[in-house]
Every structure is written in C-alpha cells, then in structure tokens.
Design goal:
Strand order of the largest sheet: 7-8-9-4-10-11-13-12
Bound molecules: adenosine-5'-triphosphate, iron/sulfur cluster, magnesium ion
CATH topology of the largest domain: Rossmann fold
Number of helices: 11
Distance between the termini: 53 Å
Helix content: 25-40%
Structural class: alpha/beta
Length: 338
C-alpha cells in the first residue's frame, strides 16, 4: 500500500433544520451538526470500514465524499491534490474518482432504463464514445461483476436484489473509479446473497486494486471485509485503528460497549442493565451521558490521542500531567480552588 489515496481532515457538515424544537443532538440555532471534525485517510487497495448507529452521519459522509454535499473549512485531498469544492472541475474529478453504491438498489436504479443503459450512465465522456467502445466497456463491467449478459436487456424490476447490486457496482466500475464508497451495500439482501456480494467485492478489490470505504451496521461484515475501521457516533469519529486491534483491544468506552454488545448499532437505548442509557451530549464528550468511565475532564471536549497507530477521542488516554491541568482549570471555573 502506498501514500494516502484519500485524506479527509476536519470534515464538518450541518443542515438547516425545519423545526424549532431540537432534542438531544449538537444543534445550534437553526442548524443541526451531522458531522463534526471528521478526519481519516485511506491507502490504495485498502478497505476502510465506517461503523455507526442509525443517524450517526454515515450516509452524509458518503455523499460528501462523492461531491453530493459541499463541505466548508475542511481539507479533502485526492492523491495528494486538495479538492476545492467551489471549483466545478475539482468536484468533477472527485466524482470521476470516487463512486458510490447505496444500500437500496431499487431506489438507485431507474426502473425505466435497461440494465445496459444503467451501466452506461457510469461511463465518463459517454457522448464522445464510439458505439462499439461503449458496448465493450459495458459488457466488460457486467463480466467483472458476474452479471449474465442476458440481463443487460432486462429492466430493474425484472432482476433480483443481488443482481441489482451487481448492476450498481458495474455502473460504478465502468467509469474506472479507484475508490468505492459502499453504503450498507448488502443490508437489504438475504444472508446467502449478502455473502455472494461480499465475496465479489473481495475479488474485485484484488483484481482492480481499488479501495473501499465500507459503511455498515454489521460488526461481522466489518471483521470479514475491513483492514481498518473507524467508529462514528453522532457525527464524531471516536476511535480508528486496524480491525484486529479494534476488536481485540477496543480503547474507547463506546467501542468497548459495541464489541461487548452492551449497546447495539440499531439504537443507543438498548443498554444492558449495567448501563445507563443516555442521549449524546452537546457539551464535553459526546458519549459522557452513557459512559461508565466518565470522570472530571469529560466535561471538556476530549482530544484525539494517537498511540500505536490507533486514534481515540477520549480523556482516558491523556497524560496524567495534562489531565491534572484540565481538572484544575475546571475547578477554577466552578470557583472551587481546592
Ligand atoms: N439533507 C438533510 N437535511 C437535513 N438533515 C439531514 C439531511 N441528511 C441527513 N440528515 C440528518 O442527519 C443525520 C444523519 O443522517 P445520515 O443519513 O447521514 O445517517 P446514517 O448514519 O446514514 O443513518 P442510517 O444508518 O439510518 O442510514 C440524521 O439525523 C438525518 O436526519
Ligand atoms: S472522554 Fe470521558 S465520557 Fe468520553 S468516553 Fe472517554 S471517559 Fe467516557
Ligand atoms: Mg445511511
């Protein structure tokens, strides 16, 4: 693996909210912060997993990476070149390099187009292409994803869920994309079909040297597919490291709770009886209302600590000296000089 293929630094996204009643999230005024200073980098040929519960901002992150949303005040570099979201050609280069496959193959394929024409949508410079060249590329893409040629004449309602996901993949690969964002690509499929698609993805990665950003709720899928993984919680990356490290030695209390099934990714409310369930906090550590390890510094936003290749956003890993400094500042603010 070589230099970072894609680097994301301090990516934040907020959306205007329509209601005035905001509850339990990092909302300020009429805005809701959905991604908060997210940073990570992926290398060529790597599968980088992003795991997070519903509403944690996974799809928003995916859509930003393919230029659907235009973030401000962050740095996104593609093979070392910074993307300026105000420049059309930069956004186009992002779209040409990074493809996306969504969870719902039904919603992402136009039911009125033949599979052949859907795959053609992924070809860049389609207008300039000769008919024969276009056809060859479409057939090659279909072959790569092991979609029978006979299906090229079908319409989406006439093919199965697994075949639809193969069509989505073929459309993305036809354009020669080097990074694929896979947003829960198998969660709408039956278990046996899920395994087929996951194995296909592994085969494609090997053959085409592409990188994946693999978004999922499913920890088993992460274990099976990913080299590294990041844990997203209400828009913040709380821990990131190699998959083995994260599963064997989870550092962040939230990661620990996930791996030990104290919480599930479908809802933070599903705690065991040992755990207090809490809303994400808008002040200090976002996990502090649920964290069994919470201590005085947690009233402040934790730093990201990097140790042995693992990044963890938690005060537990700060040096004692820095912790003492923060605790005495908090005491001073509270007017407690003791
Ligand atoms: N365009 C938008 N405008 C306003 N709010 C949005 C928009 N898109 C997403 N959100 C909100 O941002 C939050 C994160 O949404 P997102 O779809 O990124 O979550 P997710 O992690 O993909 O969830 P899921 O696992 O359910 O797919 C949610 O609270 C959602 O309602
Ligand atoms: S910073 Fe504090 S509250 Fe947050 S996860 Fe770490 S110990 Fe728990
Ligand atoms: Mg989503």
């Amino acid at each position: 693996m070589s230099d970072p293929h894609l680097e994301v630094e301090n990516l934040s996204m907020r959306f205007k909210v329509k209601t005035k009643i905001l509850h339990g999230s990092a909302d300020q005024g009429k805005f809701k912060t959905v991604l908060n200073s997210v940073s990570f980098a992926i290398k060529e040929g790597e599968t980088f997993g992003i795991v997070g519960e519903t509403g944690s901002g996974k799809t928003t992150l995916a859509k930003t990476l393919v230029g659907i949303y235009k973030p401000k005040n962050c740095t996104i570099k593609l093979q070392g070149k910074e993307i300026n979201f105000k420049k059309r050609e930069d956004v186009l280069s992002l779209r040409r390099s990074i493809g996306i496959v969504f969870q719902d193959p039904v919603g992402s394929l136009n039911p009125r187009l033949r599979v052949f024409d859907i795959i053609a949508e992924g070809l860049p410079d389609l207008q300039k292409m000769k008919k024969g060249e276009k056809e060859t590329k479409i057939r090659e893409a279909a072959k790569l994803v092991e979609l029978p040629e006979s299906k090229l004449e079908s319409y989406p309602p006439e093919i199965s869920g697994g075949e639809k996901q193969r069509v989505s993949l073929a459309r993305t690969l036809a354009g020669g994309k080097k990074i694929l964002v896979l947003d829960e690509p198998t969660s709408s499929l039956d278990v046996s079909i899920q395994a087929q698609i996951l194995n296909l993805l592994i085969k494609l990665k090997r053959e085409l040297s592409i990188s994946y950003i693999f978004i999922t709720h499913d920890l088993n899928v992460i274990k099976f597919m990913c080299d590294r993984v990041a844990v997203l919680y209400y828009g913040q990356l709380l821990e990131e490291g190699s998959t083995i490290e994260l599963f064997e030695r989870p550092r962040h209390p939230y990661t620990y709770d996930l791996i030990h099934a104290n919480v599930t990714l479908s809802s933070t409310n599903l705690y065991t009886t040992d755990h207090e369930s809490g809303e994400p906090s808008t002040e200090g550590c976002v996990y502090k209302n649920s964290c069994p390890k919470r201590f005085e510094p947690c009233e402040r936003n934790p730093p990201v600590i990097v140790r042995n290749g693992v990044r963890v956003k938690c005060w537990l890993y700060e040096t004692q000296e820095n912790l003492n400094g923060v605790i005495s500042e908090i005491k001073k603010e509270l007017g407690d000089g003791s």
